[in-house]
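Lecture 7, part B: from sequences to assemblies.

Below are the input chains for today's worked example.
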Amino acid sequence: MRPIRLALFGGGPGAFIGAVHRRAASLDQRFALVAGAFSRDRDRSRSQGQAWGVAEDRIHTDADALFAAEALRPDGIEAVAIATPNASHFPIAAAALRAGLHVMSDKPMTTTLADARALAGIAAAAPGVYGLSFTYAGYPMIREARARVAAGEIGAVRKIAVDYPQGWLAWPVEADNRQAAWRTDPAQSGIGGCIADIGVHAFHLAEHVSGLRVTELCADLACVVPGRQLDDDCNLLLRFGAVPGVLSASQIATGERNGLRLRVHGADGTIAWDHDRCGELRILRADGAMTTLYAGTGNLGDAARAASRIPAGHPEGFIEAFANLYGDFAEAIGGATAHALPGIADGLRSMAFIETAVASDQARRWLPLEQP
Amino acid sequence: MRPIRLALFGGGPGAFIGAVHRRAASLDQRFALVAGAFSRDRDRSRSQGQAWGVAEDRIHTDADALFAAEALRPDGIEAVAIATPNASHFPIAAAALRAGLHVMSDKPMTTTLADARALAGIAAAAPGVYGLSFTYAGYPMIREARARVAAGEIGAVRKIAVDYPQGWLAWPVEADNRQAAWRTDPAQSGIGGCIADIGVHAFHLAEHVSGLRVTELCADLACVVPGRQLDDDCNLLLRFGAVPGVLSASQIATGERNGLRLRVHGADGTIAWDHDRCGELRILRADGAMTTLYAGTGNLGDAARAASRIPAGHPEGFIEAFANLYGDFAEAIGGATAHALPGIADGLRSMAFIETAVASDQARRWLPLEQP
Amino acid sequence: MRPIRLALFGGGPGAFIGAVHRRAASLDQRFALVAGAFSRDRDRSRSQGQAWGVAEDRIHTDADALFAAEALRPDGIEAVAIATPNASHFPIAAAALRAGLHVMSDKPMTTTLADARALAGIAAAAPGVYGLSFTYAGYPMIREARARVAAGEIGAVRKIAVDYPQGWLAWPVEADNRQAAWRTDPAQSGIGGCIADIGVHAFHLAEHVSGLRVTELCADLACVVPGRQLDDDCNLLLRFGAVPGVLSASQIATGERNGLRLRVHGADGTIAWDHDRCGELRILRADGAMTTLYAGTGNLGDAARAASRIPAGHPEGFIEAFANLYGDFAEAIGGATAHALPGIADGLRSMAFIETAVASDQARRWLPLEQP
Amino acid sequence: MRPIRLALFGGGPGAFIGAVHRRAASLDQRFALVAGAFSRDRDRSRSQGQAWGVAEDRIHTDADALFAAEALRPDGIEAVAIATPNASHFPIAAAALRAGLHVMSDKPMTTTLADARALAGIAAAAPGVYGLSFTYAGYPMIREARARVAAGEIGAVRKIAVDYPQGWLAWPVEADNRQAAWRTDPAQSGIGGCIADIGVHAFHLAEHVSGLRVTELCADLACVVPGRQLDDDCNLLLRFGAVPGVLSASQIATGERNGLRLRVHGADGTIAWDHDRCGELRILRADGAMTTLYAGTGNLGDAARAASRIPAGHPEGFIEAFANLYGDFAEAIGGATAHALPGIADGLRSMAFIETAVASDQARRWLPLEQP
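Predicted structure of the full complex, as C-alpha cells:
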C-alpha cells in the first residue's frame, strides 16, 4: 500500500504533540509527511521541516498558503494533522475538510461547543474523514477493556472513577514554558484550563470504555496557582443515568507525571487500568481474585491484538498508542467502518462536557449534560 | 507496668471488629481482658468469653449488668472497649464514662450528631479517657505522613484526594451475613450506610494527615444494590477553605477488598499512602523523583518509629495499627497528653460530616460543614 | 480451651525474635507465657519478665534452673519457646525434650548437622512435640502456594528461583548491634553466616512450597565486609533431581529490608510470592494472564483460609504468620497430625544444607546434598 | 541532516526483530530504508519490501547480490542492519564491513568466539562503524543507571544479580513457530540456546551498568523441554574479580513475558531496574529509603535525558530504546566518539561468555572468563 500524503500543522521546535503526530503517522508507514506549517515563524518552520525531510517549497507558516499551494500539485496532500494550540484547531480543520482533505486533529476539537457544532456541520457535508486524537483510545489494553465491558464480562456497570493527576503546572511556569503559556491563556486555549486539557481525556476515556454517557455533572474547578485565569485543578461528580461516577484531574499535583487511572466497577467485576502500567489490564473478580492481562498475549481480543507490534513483555507506549489512532485513520480513509477512531461525535460530547463543567462550577450546582 | 483491666462489648462469634479489639488490646500487654458482653445471646457470649479466658462470672449479655457487677469488685474493670453495632455505641459509652471508666469506642461515635454532642458533654464531665478507633491513624506511615505534612515537607497543602473502595456489599448479602445485616439496617447503623461505615474513615484520614478541616461539601450518595435503604456508594466534592478535595468510597466496587488510598498534594510535594502497601509512604518531589519510606527504618520520625514492633521488611498490619491506638489509649490513661489517639473532637466532626453529607445528597447541592 | 503454659528463652531488651515469639504465642490465646529466662543477665531478665507479666519466681537466667523450678510446680510449664542465639538452641531443646516438654525452637535447629542428628534421636524418644520456626511456612499465601503446587495446578515443577536480600549488615555494625554481633560470631552462630541465618529460610521455602528436594548444589559464599569471619552473601546453583534452581541470599544488599522472593515454575504455570506483598499470591498462566489471589478471600483452600484472622484487605504480617506456626504447635500438642508445623525433618535437612553449602564453597565445586 | 541510506537483512513476514530494526531506524528520521533482503524466499522478500516502500530493484534475497547491486548505484546504501538468524550475522557483517559499509548487527555478533575474533580483525581494518544491538543499553534508565554507578553514587559495587525469565519456549513450539525453530536449532543458532539468546543480554547488562567484568563463572544449563538440543534454562554463579554475582535466564518460565531484572548492590546503595517498568530506576539508600527516578524528568543526567522523546509520564518502550541505539549509530557514523553504542568489544566478550558458560556447564565446574 502506498503511504497517504500528509501535512502537519504545528510541531515546531519545543513543541510536544507535533513531533508525536510525526512519529506516530510514520511508525507503521501508512503516512508520509510531505508538507507542513510547523510554526508561524518562517525560520522555525523551515528548520523543523528540513529536519523532517520536507521539501522546502512545501514548508509554510500558515494554513491558507499551504492549502493553496498543495491544491496545485498533482502529488498534493491527502490528509492533514493538526497539532497547533487549541484556538486554531477549528479554522484549520474547517478549511481542510472544505478542501476535501482528511483531518486528524489534536483534541480539543474546537474551543467552544458552538464551533464544534459548526465543524460537525462542515464535516457532514465533506468527503473527508475526521479523526480526533483522544490518544488513550489507542492503547491496546483500553481496546481490550472496552471490548470486555461491551461483551458483558463485568456485568452491568455500576460506578466509574477516573483520576488524571499531573504536576507540571504546580508553579507559575507560564513565563518560560511555551507549552504552559498557551495552555494557561484563554485566548489560545478557550474557557477551560485543566478541564479542557486533560479533564476531557478522563471524561472521554470513562465514556469510551464503559459505553455509558454522562447525563449530569457537578463540577468544582479551581485556580490553585495564584494569578492563573484558567482552572488548574478540577473535581467532578458525575451521573451516567443512575450510575454514579467521579472524575478528578489536576495539573498542580506536585510530582505527578501523567498518571491517568480508570476504574469501571460492574456487578460482576471491576476493570482497572493505569497509564503508568499501560500494557496491563486488571480485572477484579467477584470471587476476590484479580486477573491481569498483558499487551501482546494471545488471550486478548482482536482489537487489542491488532494494536501491538511486538511480543508480550516488550513495552510499547504513548507513540505506539498514537500510531494506532493513525492506523485507524488510514483504515477509515481506506473506507473501513469498523475502526476505533474517535471523531465528530466524540468531539461534540467533549466540548459539551467542558462547557457544562465550567457552567456547573460557576453555578455551584449540578447541571445536565445535554446530548449535543 | 500492670496491664489495665478491660471489658469488651461485642466480639461474639462471627464478628469482625470485636476480635480485633481483643487482639489489639493484648498485643503489647498493656491491657488484660477480664470481662465482657460479647453477644446479647447468653450462650454465644459465654462461649466467646470462655474461649478468651474470661471468668464465667464476668461474662454478661448487656452493659448495665456488667457495669453493676464490675462496680462491686475490688479488681473491677478500669476501661471498656465498644465493638457493637453502631446504635449501641452511644449508650454504652455514656454509661461507661458516667461510671468513671475509660472508653475505647469503635467508630462511629454515635448514630447522630445530637447524640455525639450529648456524649461530648458527658465526656467533658467525666474523669475517663475517651478514644475512638479511627484505625488508620494507628498506622506508622500515617503517623509519619502527618508529621511530615505538619513539618512543612510538602509545603502548603493544595489538594486532597481520598478513595476507599470495597466490594463486599456488591450483592444483597444482607440475608446471610451478620456484618452486612446491621450495616445496611438504618435501625442499627443510623442514617448513613457506606458514608458512615467507611466514608467517614476517609474523611477522618484526610483531615488527620493534612491538618486541614473540611468547610464545605457536595455529596452524591447512591443505593446501587436494589432494595437497600442506605447508601452503598458515595462520592463527594470537598473544600478545605480554598483547598479543593475529592472523596470517593464504595462498598459495591466488585472485587475490591479494602483499598483506602490517600493523596495530599502540596506546593512542594505530594504525600501518597495506600492501605494495601501500608508499610510504605511515598513522597513525590517537585523535581520529579519519588522517595519511598518504609516502616521500621531509621529515617522516620519518633511517632512512626514508636509504632513499629519489628525490623523493617517484616510486615505489620491492621491488628498492629489497632494495637497502636490501644497503646495511645494506655498512654492517655496514664496521663500522657502527647499521643495520637482520636477522641471526642474527631467523633463530633465525623458525625457532622455524615449528617452534612446525607443532607447535601438529599438537597443536591453544596452545604457548609459546620464546626460542631 | 485452656491456654498451654509456656516458658520463653531469650527475648531480652533489644532482642528481635524473642518478642515475636511472645506476641505470636499469645495472639490467638492458645499459649500463656508463665516463665522464662529472657537474658543471661539477672536484671535484664527480670525487667523483661516483669514487663510481660511473668511472676518473679518464674523468671530465670539459665535453662537448668528454670527446668528444675518448673518441674516442682503443679502448674509448671508444658512447652518452651527458644529464641536465643543459635549455639544454645541444641542444649535447651535437648533438655526440654528430655524433661517431657514440647519445644518451639527458633531456627536453625542446631549449629551442626551432628548436633541435629543427636537432637533428632532425643526427639524420637521423647513424648513432646518439636516445632521449628521456619516462619515463612506460616504465611497464608505460602500455605496456598504449597497446596496448589501439590494439587498440580502449575503442573510438573521445572525450575525454582529464590532470592533473599537484606542490607542491614552492609557495614561493620557488629560492634554496636547485639543482633549483628552474635550472627557474625562463629562461636554463637556456627559455621554459616548469611547462609545459616537467611539462606536456610530460602532453602526451606523452596522445598516446602515445591515439594521437591535439593539433591546437589554448588555454592559461592562471600565475606564482603572486610574483617568478617562468616559469609555475608551467598549464591547457589541447585538441582532438585533434574530440576534446576538458583538461590541467592545477602545481608549486604544495601537498602534492602527483607525481600524474600520465590518463583516456582511449572509446566502449566508459575507461582510467585514476595514477602513485601505477603498477602498476595500470583499465578502466571500458560496463556499469558496472571491471577492474583489475596489472603482472606473465599477462593483460597482450607489451609490458607484458616491462617487469616480478619477480612481480605486488612493486612496481616509477620507476627500473624508466626502465630500461625504457634497455632500449628498447639494443634500438634493437642494430637493433630494434619498440620503444617516444620519440625525435626526440616531441621535435619536445613542443617545438611548449611554444611553442604559451606563445603561446596570451600571445594569450589558441586556436591551432593545427602538425605540426612 | 540527510538521512543515512540503510539496507535491512531479515525482517520478512512473521519475523520479530527485523521490523523492530525498521521502525527503530526511522523513528527519529536519521536513517532511510532503501534496500534489503528481507527473506531468502523471493516472494516473501518482495512483498515485505513493497510494504515498506522499498523500490523493487533494491529488494534482494541474498547479501552478495544486494551488495553488488548497491555498489553500482550513485545513491547506494551506506549502512546495513542485520536481523537474520544468528548463523548469518558473521558473513553478512564481514561482507558489509569489507565493502566499506557501516553495520548494525543484531546480537549475537557471531555463533562462535573464533568467528567473533575474525570479525574483530575485519572491523579493525575497515572504515565502517560496527554496532551491536544489545537493546537494553538503549533504555534511558539504563543510561542513567550506568552513569550513576560510574559517578560513584552507590559506592563500590559489591554484588550483582540479574534475572531474565521468559516463558514462550515452555512447550515444544518449534514445529509451528519460526522464531522458536531457528533459536532451538544449533545449525542456525550456534552452541547456545537460552544462554546465547537472552542469557547474553543479562550478562551484557550486568557488565554495562556495573562497569565490572566477569572473571570467573560456574554455569548450569538445562534442556528442560524434552527433545531439545540446546539449553532452554540457564543459571550461573559469577565472579567479577572478588565481587560475587548471580545470573539466571530461562525460556521455560511459564507465563513470564520478558522480565529482565537487574540489581547492582554497592556499599552506599543499590540500583534496581526492571524491564516491565522500564521508565523507572530505583535507588535503595543506605538509610532505608528508596528513590525512584522517572524517564523524562529533569533530575536525570545528560545521557538519559537525550534518550527520551516525550515528557515524563508518557511511556516509551522497546522500539524507542532500539531507536536510541540507532541514534548512537548515526552519531558514530557522523564521527562522534562519545556514544553508548555497543560494538566489537561487547561482541567479543559476549561470545567468550557464551562459550565459557557452555564449557563450564559441561565440565560441571568454575572456569575463568578470559579477556578475548
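Note for the exam: The radius of gyration of chain D is 20 Å. Keep this in mind when comparing with the next example.
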